[in-house]
Amino acid sequence: MKQKTIEQPCSFFGIGIHSGKESRVKLLPLPENSGIIINGRPLSINNVSKTNRGTTIGNVSVTEHLLAAIYALGIDNAAIQIEGEEVPILDGSALPFVEQIKTKEQKTDKQFITLKEQIIISDGNSQIVAEPFDKLQIDFAIDFPVIGKQAYSFTLEKDRFRKEIAPARTFGFEREIKTLKKQNLGQGASLDNALGIGKNGYLNQPRFDNEPVRHKILDLVGDLALLNQPIQARIKAIKSGHRHNIELVRRILKSCQS
Known about the structure:
The protein has helices spanning about 65-70, 95-100, 160-165, 175-180, 210-225, 240-255, and strands at about 1-5, 10-15, 20-30, 35-40, 40, 50, 55, 80-85, 105-110, 115, 120-125, 125-130, 135-145, 150-155, 170-175, 195-200, 200, 230-240. By secondary structure, it is of the alpha+beta class. It has a single domain (about 1-255), classed as lpxc deacetylase, domain 1, CATH 3.30.1700. The strands form 5 sheets. Strands 10, 11, 12, 13, 14 and 18 form a 6-stranded mixed sheet that branches. A 5-stranded mixed sheet has the order 2-3-8-4-5, with no helix packed on it. Strand 11 and strand 12 form a beta hairpin. Helix 5 packs parallel to helix 6. The radius of gyration is 17 Å and the shape is globular. The two termini are about 25 Å apart.
């Protein structure tokens, strides 16, 4: 399997879901073995500054939807230029990125990260278990008020990601809106860019009956992009979030060094 880059430059423009401010992203192709470069710096776990309501890299927040698209499309080498505080939320999913980004195969072979042993991240009721496997498979389970328990199993393939995971939007609870606003979060959130959940259920039409758990898989794929190299593993996640995903990435990289 060969490395890939962006076929041609492309741009995205919109508001940030938390800042409510306009931002722009431009993607550019790069040569083999360049990796993913974001605002002039290699994509790295060391540059993650926050994991509250999204993954912040340096000074840019909510990077996970764009990175999930890049990862799922198999892109190894690309430059990401971001103007603004956040990656634009667009429709709340990764689908607009997946639909617009075109890829180009390169000459160098792709190199995968493979696990030597099981890795377990435990934190109260949250857990992630990663173990050796011959492809990337994610089994995710959540349990939230109102929507209850949801579970989904997904094996990473470009077409499956486009149909099953990319359209799943970020979701939020109506009861949290005031608190988020006081924290200067969710300033750009609306039912146009998120799946809303009220006391009696969904506030707008879900794209899937289990859209929230599918979006949690999307977020995990985006955070795995911080490895800056594709991984083959079976990952089982229960009630986990960005903080746990980042710790998993950290532990995987540490295991590769030992």
